[in-house]
Specification:
This protein is an all-alpha fold and 96 residues long. Helices cover 75% and strands 0% of the residues. It has 5 helices and no strands. The longest helix has 19 residues.
């Protein structure tokens, strides 16, 4: 029988993702999102920040939840992106 997950289970999983292997693979989430913003800006001529990129990722997860609302990964990833957004704000990251 599968255990019914609650928000704390999902938050724990989101924390493990961004603090564990992904951090080891990609480095600081804020630095990684700054890097993504620089690439996006070079391609499009826009001026997005690392925080903006975290918001774009959250929008992606929102759109995916609309088509598959029972897929837990959408919620876990969104929780992780909200945390990354918070770190961007706390680092004062507004412009690259």
């Amino acid at each position: 029988m599968n255990k019914k997950l609650n928000r704390c289970d999902l938050l724990s999983e989101a924390s493990a993702l961004t603090a564990g292997d992904r951090r080891d693979d990609y480095g600081s989430p804020v630095d990684n999102h700054k890097h993504i913003a620089r690439i996006f800006n070079a391609i499009t001529g826009n001026t997005l920040t690392a925080r903006d990129i975290a918001l774009v990722h959250q929008a992606t997860k929102l759109a995916r939840r609309m088509s598959s609302p029972t897929k837990k990964d959408h919620y876990i990833d969104n929780m992780a992106y909200v945390g990354i957004e918070y770190e961007c704000v706390m680092e004062g990251e507004q412009w690259i």
